[in-house]
Amino acid sequence: MVKIGDAPLLEHQIRLLKKYGVEQVVLMTGYLSQVIEDYFGDGNRFGVKIDYFREEKPLGTTGGIKELQDELTADFIVFYGDVMANMNLEKLIKFHQAEERACTLVLHPADHPRDSDLVEVDENHRIIRFHSKPHPRGRYFRNLVSAGIYIMSPRILKHIEKDVKADFGRDIFPRIVAKERLYGCITAEYVKDIGTPQRLKQVRNDYANGKIEKLGNENKRPAIFLDRDGVINKKNGLIYQLKDFELLDGAAKAIKKINESPFLSIVVTNQPVIARNLCTIEQLEEIHKKMDTLLGIENAKLDAVYYCPHHPDKGFAEENAAYKIKCRCRKPDIGMIEKAQQEFNIDLCRSFFIGDSFRDVLCGKNADLTTIGLMTGDACKDGDIKPDYLFENLYEAVDFIIENLCRPF
Question: Does one domain contain both 234 and 187?
């Protein structure tokens, strides 16, 4: 019932559900439940029908749902009561219905992955592993956090014990991930919990300045596209071993500044190390997990990472022939940018490309983006294509964009 703007958080959730055609809501209550029931009543004034289930004893996130299993005969949405969200539920539902899925979890990159339970997905977004906090030192994880929003098939309920306190993320999902088809719907829309005073303050500020409204998927957003090697990390030749990946000074600070702006932070990188057979896709993914982890330590996050594993030059004995092809994703072609535009509803007219090589600059120009070159890495000296702007490092470039060329929320 804590206020976000002029309404309780639960009211924001109910109005979001109503916007996307969900008209039957069950509120699971416990301590001081009467306050909630007095405020929402039967739901008529919100255009929905509200029923209540009052827990006599706390049973975690699962207990109340288990009690309602006789009524839950079709797929249903679960919202945790401390999550402020503005997301396209229609898109989420379509994602869930695309295949026979037992459960779809809403996942998103977080700016506090160290104190979050992390989720690992495969290339098809099927969940393959859960990593509960605290995370062991020396290991790297992709920065994907469960948002506390699920679509569930009723068959999930058979995995819950009646009258036993349990949590979906900690107890149920990790136990059944190999048995049931669990998928992650990854979004950069506004999804944030208010579980600490600092996060509550941030959500209230985001609501007051219009950020929450503008980060819905129906609104086009600008992006800052980033090359990887020589822009985010030191360019030590071809990076194909985990030990060789090191962040450039100030890179995390720059990406954190992007995160605090209207821009999405999206990496698009050529990685011919796969075609050259220097490493496997799995090893490359480990490098990107290290990147996510190192950025997360400094409370920075990437909204997406796209990479091209191909290389067109054939005929080498050691090559991986399956990836020695011409493709539309390898920069300076714009296949990765087109994919990002489609998945994130990006406004390219207000977007930028930051890179250190002529391929980056030409790719940005091919996509009609404003291009920014850096003096790190190749320093844009490997070709005749000149960027629109040139800066010493990533932080200077990002600072220039946001302070001079960015429309505020």
Answer: no
